[in-house]
From TrEMBL:
EC numbers for this chain: 2.7.13.3
InterPro entries assigned: DUF7134, HATPase_C_sf, HATPase_dom, Sensor_HK_TwoCompSys, Sig_transdc_His_kin_sub3_dim/P
Transmembrane segments: 136-153, 173-195
Annotated protein name in UniProt: histidine kinase
Molecular function as annotated in GO: kinase activity
């Protein structure tokens, strides 16, 4: 058989995974009981019919009822054919042999006896859990039956019981032997192979069900992973948008409070900055929420929802971001290196958000008096952005560090490299290099970390 035997590892060296067919259900057990009882009754009736059509007197066995008893007994074990298939096969085979020896007329003329033996062979091949024991049992039954058949051929030759018109190429005896041998071979081996096919079909059905369950579990896991990834993306966007502007508002408000009495004009300018920052924050929040609601742009167009404007964040707006980040004792510079190239939208937005988060951290968690942003275009292969400052971490409780986590996640998803940590000469550095993906620059679709082959983890404290 195609399945490996129990205890024998496959040739590949993998652990043995012999399949065990589950036992019959309650419904199948009830049907087997009805089948065994029905065939037992049919066996008794068949023996009576064989007795009535016999041309001469017949031997009914002990007490005149042995033929009836054997005809019923050979079918009754089929009530348990799927629960104990090998035991049923052995019991039916013994009764089959006994019936043939004790009441030949009922054995030859009662079709139910032949069907019972066939079904016992089929059930053993189809339902036996221990396939090695099933094969051994089959060999024992087959050898016993064919030895009995051969004994009958020898006995017929000795008594010259096979006679005929002798009109064929072979003698009547030889013709009889070949015909009966072929019929019995077809009978026994046919039952075995039919049962083995049923076992194979059941195994294949089980494997298909397992595969379907695994695919369903994978789909659920992928869906869960997609939800988590989307939540992380939303979290990064909200953090970048809110933290930067709220930080700016807090710093300007503190400055306005300190100079309100001594320098009303400076306080007025700080309040103006607060007003502009709050409006910008609200606009960016609206754009972000609008993108989240626009799950299907085509559907929105059909139902009359206007298309959303493209996000304003991008590498081309870094000078404006740097200009608004300065003030209140912090000087921020900007420098661009290399020939500018058109960046994919995903890369451009990520560059902006990385700088925005880095400058926010400088203002909130550092004693720095100056910071510098450098944007490097490395040909058409990559873009690099770096934010450095000259400060030290404040002694006040630090933030949640979600900003650094978000930067690493952004860079990792785009297949880039990130470096976040203190500089050897003092101050802090945030650097990110993002590949431009020249194979599909128009789409702006980022590579996954698996596609890029680049480790997205940060290198803490690495030198430039």
């Amino acid at each position: 058989m195609s399945a490996s035997q129990p205890g024998t590892p496959p040739a590949t060296g993998t652990p043995n995974t012999e399949w065990l067919r589950p036992g019959p259900t309650r419904g199948e057990q009830r049907r087997d009981i009805l089948l065994g009882l029905g065939m037992a009754a049919a066996g008794v009736f068949g023996t009576e019919l064989a007795k009535g059509t016999s041309p001469g007197p017949v031997e009914m066995g002990a007490g005149g009822i042995e033929a009836y008893v054997l005809s019923a007994a050979v079918a009754l074990p089929l009530c348990f054919r799927r629960r104990y298939p090998l035991t049923v096969l052995l019991v039916v085979s013994v009764l089959f042999f006994t019936s043939g020896e004790r009441v030949p007329f009922a054995f030859a003329g009662n079709l139910v006896t032949q069907i019972s033996q066939f079904m016992a062979l089929y059930s053993a091949a189809a339902w036996a859990k221990d396939r090695r024991r099933m094969k051994v049992t089959m060999v024992v039954v087959f050898v016993g039956m064919f030895v009995w058949l051969f004994h009958g051929f020898v006995e017929a030759l000795q008594t010259d019981a096979i006679k005929g018109a002798d009109q064929g190429m072979l003698s009547p005896y030889v013709s009889f032997v070949l015909l009966n041998f072929a019929l019995n071979a077809l009978y026994f081996f046919g039952a075995y192979f039919w049962g083995r096919t049923a076992w194979g079909v059941a195994r294949q059905r089980h494997e298909l069900e397992q595969q379907a369950m695994e695919l369903s579990a994978q789909q659920q896991e992928n869906a869960r992973r997609a939800v988590i990834d989307e939540r992380l993306r939303i979290s990064r966007e909200l953090h970048d948008v809110v933290a930067h502007h709220i930080s700016s508002i807090g710093i300007q408000a503190g400055g306005a409070r300190r100079v309100m009495a001594s320098d009303p004009e400076a306080a007025k300018n700080a309040l103006s900055v607060i007003e502009n920052s709050s409006r910008t924050a609200v606009n960016e929040m609206r754009q972000l929420l609008g993108m989240l609601r626009a799950a299907d742009p085509d559907l929105d167009e059909e139902i009359g929802i206007p298309a959303l404007k493209a996000p304003q964040a991008g590498a081309d707006r870094l000078p404006a971001l740097v200009a608004t980040a300065g003030g209140e004792g912090l000087s921020v510079g900007f420098h661009q290196i290399g020939q500018p190239v058109t960046l994919p939208e995903t890369i451009s937005v990520s560059v902006y958000r990385i700088v925005q988060e880095a400058l926010t951290n400088v203002r909130r968690h550092s004693t720095a008096r100056s910071a510098h942003v450098t944007l490097r275009y490395l040909g058409d292969t990559a873009v690099e952005v770096e934010v450095i400052d000259d400060g030290r971490p404040k002694h006040a409780p630090v933030g949640s560090r979600l900003g650094h986590v978000g930067i690493r996640e952004r860079v990792g998803l785009l297949g880039g490299e990130s470096e976040i940590g203190p500089r050897p000469v003092g101050g802090f550095r945030v650097r990110a290099r993002l590949p431009l993906q020249p194979s599909s620059p128009s789409t702006g679709e980022p590579q996954t970390p698996e596609d890029s082959g680049v480790d997205s983890s940060a290198v803490e404290g690495a030198q430039q």
